[in-house]
Specification:
3-stranded antiparallel sheet; 11 strands; Alpha-Beta Plaits; 268 residues; rod-shaped; single chain; disordered N terminus; 5-stranded antiparallel sheet; Translation Initiation Factor IF3; 31% helix; alpha+beta
């Protein structure tokens, strides 16, 4: 923004109107076009006086804009620790038979039984995974036989109930390949909001501190950029021996949030 100033007419620099006492009241003495002072009634000079006052007010209003603001770029990352509230188990059914059809039939029966058992446990979500069938090469252990395998993912907010279910599936011959503690969607969202609030508060504090060291004051944020949603990795656990219900103890999960901003600093 350009700074405003009152315009000056040629030949009038340094001359200002004056009011002098007269017989019938005050008279306005103002410079003429030739530089001489011309007298007139005070009432006739009021428009000119208002014009001068208006220009002065505009100049004062534009003065703060003439002082450039100081921009400060900051980035802050905050973390919060959250107790996991959802357990996920990965199990698989495997079978070996002389023919592919026999191996697949055995796997299909095991998967159907596992899905039926999962459906009887409240709060357990079941999702089938990959399915594969292959033949062992001749000359190798089990050469010529066929093997089939199918995966099943089970998850629940009730860890104890899910672990008991996994133990029963192990007893039926299913293999457990993973136990992982993680965060449910509502818990993850709440944790990220808490981390973001923590990062913004730290960002504001750093901006105010930097402004004080520079002899300025923190006016606000011109731009704010929120980092992408963090990837929260679940905690891997290991299954216990077959026929014994597995044990999985959850550990605190760290959720982070990154905030970048451009702070505006001004004079005190």
């Amino acid at each position: 923004m350009r700074c405003l100033s009152a315009p000056e007419s040629p030949g009038m620099a340094g001359l200002e109107p004056a009011i002098t006492p007269g017989r019938r009241g005050h008279r306005l003495v103002r410079p003429g076009a030739d530089g001489r002072l011309a007298a007139g009634h005070a009432g006739r000079g009021r428009p000119l006086r208002r014009w001068v006052v208006l220009l002065a007010l505009l100049t004062l209003a534009a003065a703060p804009a003439c002082r450039a603001a100081t921009l400060l770029r900051l980035t802050e990352t905050a973390t919060v620790a959250v107790t996991p509230d959802r357990l996920t188990a990965t199990v698989s059914a495997q079978a070996t038979a002389p023919s592919a059809a026999a191996a697949q039939a055995a796997v299909n029966r095991a998967m159907a039984a596992a899905l039926a058992a999962a459906g009887k446990v409240a709060g357990v979500r079941a999702e089938t995974g990959g399915y594969s069938t292959w033949q062992h090469p001749p000359g190798t252990p089990g050469g010529g036989s066929w093997q089939a395998s199918a995966g099943l993912t089970l998850s629940s907010g009730n860890g104890a109930a899910l672990l008991a279910l996994v133990g029963r599936l192990q007893a039926r011959g299913m293999a457990v390949s993973g136990l992982q503690w993680g965060l449910s969607a509502p818990t993850r969202r709440k944790a990220r909001q808490a981390a973001m609030a923590k990062a913004i508060a730290a960002l504001r504090g750093r901006a105010a501190q930097a402004a004080g060291l520079l002899g300025l004051r923190f006016l606000g944020f011109r731009e704010v950029t929120l980092g992408p949603p963090p990837s929260v990795l679940p905690r891997p656990m290991f299954a216990m021996a077959r026929a014994v219900a597995p044990v999985a103890v959850g550990q605190a999960v760290t959720v982070s949030a990154t905030v970048s901003a451009v702070a505006t600093l001004g004079g005190k």
